[in-house]
Amino acid sequence: MSGGGIAAEQPASFAFTAENEAKAEALIAKYPEGRQQSAVMALLDLAQRQHDNWIPMAAIDVIGAKLEMAPIRVLEVATFYSMYNMAPVGAFYLQACRTTPCWLRGSDNVIKAIRDKLGIANKQMTDDGKFSLLEVECLGACANAPVLQVNDDFYEDLDYAGTVALLDKLAEGEIPTPGSTSGRTGAMPAPGATSLTSAGGGAGATGDVGED
Question: Lower CB count within 10 Å: N or C terminus of the chain?
Answer without folding.
Answer: C
